Amino acid sequence: MSAPFVQRAVWLVGICFVAVIAAVAITRRHDDSSLKNLPKAVPVPGTKNGFYTGRAAPYSASPAHPRTACGQPFTTATQGVAHPVLPCGVRLYLRFRGREVLTQVIDRGPTVPGRDFDVTKALANRLGLHGAQTIQWRFAK
Q1: What torsion, rounded to 10 degrees, do the Cα atoms 40, 44, 46, 51 define?
Q2: Is the pTM above the cut of 0.85?
């Protein structure tokens, strides 16, 4: 085989790969059927109640940063969590003092040692979370 033929084949494979990824992303973005019913929670193996535990504290939107690291508008009404490792959009159930809510990762953080999540002020109010507290969490399907 000649070098130009191999180069063209590699480019064609690369273009097809990008097209497939774009098609999957577009179809997942427009799938609103998942919003009609809450997803089931994924139980945590080896735990008594099926939840992980972690430290969380509220944080507020900064006027200097009107969008989250995941690209969402960040207002006083925005509900979600910041996590340093979990990917943007991952849905989680958070439980605190008997209240359980479905939310998602919308930002990066926290930068405070010993804290696993930053919870937006609106979501913290919904949970009744004030200051750094231990919460329970698990993934949603």
Answers
A1: -100
A2: no
